[in-house]
Design a protein that fits this description.
By secondary structure, the protein is α/β, with parallel strands linked by helices. It has one domain: Aminopeptidase. Helices cover 19% and strands 29% of the residues. The chain contains 3 helices and 10 strands; from the N terminus they run E-H-E-E-H-E-E-E-E-E-E-H-E. It has helices at 24-30, 51-63, 124-132; strands at residues 6-13, 35-36, 40-47, 68-71, 79-83, 85-87, 108-110, 113-115, 117-119, 139-143. A 4-stranded mixed β-sheet has the order 2-3-1-4. A two-stranded parallel sheet has the order 5-10. A two-stranded antiparallel sheet has the order 6-9. One of its GO terms (biological process) is proteolysis. It holds the Pfam family Peptidase_C15. InterPro entries: Peptidase_C15-like, Peptidase_C15-like_sf. It comes from Megaselia scalaris (Humpbacked fly).
Length: 153
């Protein structure tokens, strides 16, 4: 990375129940280029589907002060959802190590304060408008109803 490049992390998830061989989110991420327009360096990470690993990796990512972090998750929707937020609750499921969150809640902090929901400052509605018409494939939609799987955690 040179001094002029901005760091962008893009994460995909590792295998989990029902997708033991391959997780489509990681397959999509690893196909991304390593740089965009020579201005952005993409650091791609495969994240194990465990609460403990997610906590550690997210903490490590933010210590590097990236320009942007994009977490990619795949589910059964027939479109790409650009999520606006991540709630603190609604995570009742077990991870691949059969661990769960106490009370199904995440501990979220936003600028050092506890919060019940994290929201991006990006205008995801505008992103959908600008990118959606340029994508040859599934539709892209704005979403505020993140799924209750670990990818939403």
């Amino acid at each position: 990375m040179n001094d002029d490049q901005k760091l962008i992390f893009v994460t995909g998830f590792g295998p989990f129940v029902g997708h033991e061989e391959v997780n489509a989110s990681w397959e999509a991420v690893k196909r991304l280029p390593d740089e965009l327009d020579q201005r952005y360096l993409l650091k791609k990470l495969e994240v194990p589907v465990t609460y403990k690993d997610v906590d550690k990796i997210v903490e490590d990512i933010w210590k590097q002060k990236p320009y942007l972090v994009v977490h990619i998750g795949i589910d059964s929707r027939d479109y790409i959802a650009i999520e606006q937020n991540a709630p603190e609750n609604n995570f009742p499921g077990l991870d691949v190590n059969n661990h769960h969150l106490e009370d199904g809640k995440a501990v979220l902090t936003n600028e050092g304060k506890s919060d019940c929901k994290l929201c991006t400052k990006l205008d995801t509605t505008d992103i959908v408008k600008k990118v959606g018409d340029q994508v040859n494939g599934p539709k892209i939609k704005h979403s505020e109803t993140i799924e209750s799987f670990l990818c939403g955690y």
